[in-house]
């Protein structure tokens, strides 16, 4: 038969084709063994249809015993008037279609530069529903079952969903719904399209849009679900299917599919349209995937035949830049062997759709996010009489979530449409905001997970890396205590917050050198020095006025110079401290003094919280620094041992310094120490608070998501949605990482420390980069966000540079080690590390331990090491494949 068809095709070409540029022949045999023929030739000029047909029969009747199917004989002008175009055959073809219409045309387009990226340019039209096709290379993979369950889930979430059965040659979806909730309409989509394709001008349509759909009336859903069947299966239906080609419904002169969607939209106004596509490599399947849809979901059964067929199609799509698809492995056996099989087959597909360069650009986390969705085999589904099956909705929820995300993405496009995008980007307040403002402005402080823990009066030690917000919390307690009170249920009304040491108090610097000498000579102890220093601080803050004279008269006289309102540390204060620590009687009086003050506070139901900050900056580089800091904690132990109830201490100290301290009874602070860490929710609150400093940005956000008066009480999902206007949902298409995860993971070090200042630098750098595109003609702005991924990439580099600079300041002694980082790739072995440092002052193992401890590197399961992403650009570390 195949040879006969080839012979017939050759005969027809020889008989009818005179000009290969404008005339052509198409020949095929359909599933009912009927022969379909299309001839476009000017030989037919001035001939009636009967004469054309007679001439055809003369040429082929002795070649192949056939039954006629679809026969169309046209002149070149008649073909043009009908919207029928010559198929693409080589790279010289001038294809004016907007999309590829068949698998053959897709294959041909690989040689045609005009087609590159055409398929990937599909954009959602504001006001129209999103159209998604469910496609599979082979049947029996659970595609239809998945579509129905996904449609139900979306409808149950309040969406208006339309299902269209485009499995034209094997329809039957009408039978899977319970007759109690669904009655099939009189006609289907084929009836609608066929009538419009074949009708004579001037005739009225008999099949209207309301004749071809019915509602599936589930009572337990808040949305609505409608179904458009292919048609009612009978001889008339079969004749219609075989009478026209799939491509003809979207020809350039009369796009009947667009007319259908417009009628459907006017009648139902759906949020989403789900198409059940024809399987295999055929015209109807190609039509659904390549021309009718905004997005395709490929369903693959985990065997070699399905995977190889799918790989062929995906490989072709990749060549023309088609990315609007996702992959679902379906009917997987839920056991170890089934999951292993999927992993193996996914490896084959992954290597088909991603280049080596793309794979090397992914982190391990991103690769896991790009993996296919998985639907496991369900015995309940296998024996069900009707769909959907309520007990297995969870199996299909991930697919529904994916589509829900598509709808949200479309909502972003709708909101940004018609706005002055560049004006909004320029209004974002990152440009004019400095670090000092971030640290001091209460607007940029929010209730984080650690706030209530910090406000526990028994917590004395607050650790964290540089940049995690210790100084911010210190400043809030001293300058904006009312703001803090509004964020917590802990009663702080009768609490006075003062600085024991830090930016918001006078503090000695060089004086510590003299006191260190006294300690070395045995003339003083660091805990006594801190106790005398504390008394000066209390006097400066007018907390000693109510102490009785008598016993404390001499001490109060000694403290009088500290009552002066001065801006800096005065030598008088140093003298006070020196006199106290030199006189044992004074030291005893100071302790009694503190006891007396505590009793007064208890009677008044008042409390004093004393905060210490900048100990690392002021003392770390001193030879005696560690011992001096340990003295402060010894003083707190002494005061706690005296059962002082209403005077509390809060010491902000860098995490690594705290861990290095080894004073006696350090365990006293167990349960009284917290580590400041920013989780993703805290991070997003800060990003939103900063961004809402722009009124223009705020106005478009509230159109998309309502913003409560107090952002601190927003849940993480609401925060993510509110920021989607700023940076989108995913990085690049539906197979890439969510932007919020991408940012958070890249601004987090190897010890899970995340840095608010790094977030600010990323946003500022991204805004600066985005504005460079304003007048670019070849870099169009994204329609669903303000800051594109490329701009965020530049912002990340800026954040990395700032973070590395902070690390150099934080660990001055490691500066020489940091300078050698540029010799490494992001992943390295012990031997590679040793080769660089063995000839330096650093011991290889000790340095590795230090770098792990401070969050620069982490050890992998295979024994190798990797740098945290936040440090790559700033230290000029080379990136390699993460596979």
Fold blueprint:
Elements: H1 2-16, E1 24-29, E2 34-40, H2 49-60, E3 67-74, H3 76-81, H4 103-109, E4 130-136, H5 143-156, E5 160-166, H6 189-198, E6 214-215, E7 224-228, H7 235-243, H8 256-268, E8 272-277, H9 283-292, E9 295-300, H10 304-319, E10 325-332, H11 336-353, H12 356-361, H13 364-370, E11 373-376, H14 379-382, H15 393-416, H16 421-427, H17 435-440, H18 451-454, E12 461-464, H19 470-479, H20 481-485, E13 495-501, H21 511-520, H22 526-540, H23 553-559, H24 571-582, H25 584-604, E14 607-612, H26 615-619, H27 625-641, E15 647-654, H28 655-660, E16 673-675, H29 680-691, H30 695-704, H31 716-727, H32 739-746, H33 756-771, H34 789-810, H35 815-819, E17 827-828, H36 830-837, H37 844-853, E18 857-859, E19 865-867
Parallel strand pairs: 2-3, 4-8, 4-9, 5-7, 5-8, 9-10, 10-11, 12-15, 12-16, 13-14, 14-15
Antiparallel strand pairs: 1-2, 6-7, 17-19, 18-19
Helix pairs in contact: 5-15, 10-11, 22-24, 22-25, 22-27, 24-25, 29-31, 30-31, 33-34
């Amino acid at each position: 038969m195949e040879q006969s068809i080839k012979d017939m095709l050759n005969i027809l070409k020889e008989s009818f084709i005179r000009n290969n540029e404008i005339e052509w022949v198409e020949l095929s045999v359909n599933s009912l063994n009927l022969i379909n023929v299309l001839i476009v030739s000017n030989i037919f000029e001035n001939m009636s249809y009967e004469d054309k047909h007679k001439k055809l029969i003369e040429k082929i009747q002795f070649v192949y015993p056939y039954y006629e199917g679809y026969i169309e004989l046209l002149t070149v002008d008649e073909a043009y008037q009908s919207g029928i175009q010559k198929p693409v055959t080589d790279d010289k073809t001038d294809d004016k279609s907007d999309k590829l219409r068949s698998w053959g045309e897709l294959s041909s387009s690989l040689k045609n530069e005009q087609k590159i990226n055409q398929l990937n340019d599909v954009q959602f039209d504001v006001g129209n529903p999103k159209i998604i096709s469910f496609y599979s290379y082979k049947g029996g993979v659970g595609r239809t079952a998945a579509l129905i369950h996904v449609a139900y889930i979306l409808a149950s979430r309040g969406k208006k969903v339309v299902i269209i059965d485009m499995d034209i040659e094997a329809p039957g979806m009408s039978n899977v719904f319970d007759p109690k909730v669904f009655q099939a309409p009189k006609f289907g989509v084929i009836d609608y399209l066929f009538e419009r394709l074949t009708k004579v001008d001037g005739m009225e349509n008999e099949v209207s849009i309301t004749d071809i759909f019915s509602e599936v009336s589930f009572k337990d859903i808040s949305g609505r679900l409608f179904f458009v069947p292919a048609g009612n299966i009978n001889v008339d239906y079969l004749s219609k299917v075989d009478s026209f080609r799939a491509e003809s419904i979207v020809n350039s002169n009369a796009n009947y599919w667009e007319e259908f969607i417009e009628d459907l939209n006017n009648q139902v106004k759906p949020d989403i349209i789900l198409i059940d596509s024809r399987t295999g490599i055929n015209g109807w399947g190609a039509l659904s995937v390549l021309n009718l849809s905004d997005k395709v979901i490929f369903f693959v059964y985990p065997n070699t035949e399905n995977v190889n067929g799918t790989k062929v199609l995906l490989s072709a799509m990749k060549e023309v830049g088609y990315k609007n698809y996702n992959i679902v492995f379906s009917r997987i056996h839920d056991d170890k062997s089934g999951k292993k099989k999927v992993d193996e087959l996914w490896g084959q597909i992954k290597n088909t759709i991603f280049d080596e360069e793309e794979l090397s650009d992914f982190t391990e986390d991103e690769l896991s996010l790009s993996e296919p969705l998985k639907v496991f085999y369900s015995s309940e589904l296998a024996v069900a009489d009707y769909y959907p099956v309520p007990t297995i909705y969870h199996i299909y929820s991930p697919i529904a979530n994916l589509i829900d995300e598509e709808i949200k993405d479309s909502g972003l496009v709708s909101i940004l449409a018609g706005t002055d995008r560049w004006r909004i980007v320029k209004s974002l307040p990152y440009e004019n905001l400095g670090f000092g403002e971030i640290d001091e402005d209460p607007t940029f402080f929010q209730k984080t997970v650690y706030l209530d823990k910090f406000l526990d009066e028994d917590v004395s030690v607050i650790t964290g890396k540089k940049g995690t917000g210790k100084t911010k919390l210190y400043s809030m307690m001293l300058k904006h205590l009312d703001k803090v009170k509004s964020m917590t249920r802990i009663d702080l009304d009768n609490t006075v917050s003062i600085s024991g040491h830090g930016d918001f108090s006078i503090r000695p610097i060089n004086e510590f050198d003299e006191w260190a000498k006294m300690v070395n000579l045995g003339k003083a102890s660091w805990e006594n020095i801190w106790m005398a220093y504390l008394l000066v601080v209390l006097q400066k803050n007018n907390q000693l006025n109510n102490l009785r004279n008598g016993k404390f008269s001499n001490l109060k006289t000694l403290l009088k110079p500290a009552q002066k309102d001065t801006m800096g540390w005065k030598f008088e204060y140093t003298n006070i401290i020196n006199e106290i620590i030199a006189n044992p009687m004074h030291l005893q009086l100071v302790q009694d003094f503190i006891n007396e003050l505590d009793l007064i506070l208890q009677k008044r139901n008042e409390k004093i919280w004393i905060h210490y900050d900048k100990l690392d900056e002021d003392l770390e580089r001193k030879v005696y620094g560690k011992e001096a800091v340990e003295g402060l904690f010894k003083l707190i132990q002494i005061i706690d041992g005296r059962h002082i109830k209403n005077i509390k201490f809060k010491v902000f100290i860098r995490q690594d310094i705290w861990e290095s301290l080894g004073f006696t009874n350090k365990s006293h602070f167990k349960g009284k120490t917290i580590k400041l860490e920013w989780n993703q929710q805290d991070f997003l609150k800060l990003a939103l608070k900063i961004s809402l400093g722009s009124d223009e940005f705020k106005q478009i956000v509230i159109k998309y998501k309502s913003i409560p008066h107090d952002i601190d009480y927003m849940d993480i999902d609401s925060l993510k949605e509110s920021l989607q206007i700023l940076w989108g949902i995913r990085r690049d298409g539906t197979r890439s990482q969510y932007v919020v995860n991408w940012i958070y993971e890249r601004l987090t070090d190897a010890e899970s420390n995340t840095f608010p200042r790094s977030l600010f630098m990323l946003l500022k750098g991204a805004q600066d980069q985005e504005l460079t595109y304003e007048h670019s003609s070849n870099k169009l702005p994204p329609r669903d966000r303000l800051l594109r991924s490329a701009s965020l990439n530049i912002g990340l580099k800026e954040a990395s540079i700032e973070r590395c600079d902070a690390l150099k300041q934080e660990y001055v002694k490691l500066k020489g080690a940091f300078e050698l980082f540029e010799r490494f790739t992001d992943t390295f072995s012990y031997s590679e590390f040793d080769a660089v440092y063995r000839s330096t002052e650093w011991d290889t193992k000790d340095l590795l331990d230090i770098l792990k401890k401070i969050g620069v590197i982490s050890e992998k399961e295979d024994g190798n090491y990797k740098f945290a992403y936040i440090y790559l650009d700033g230290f000029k570390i080379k990136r390699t494949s993460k596979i």
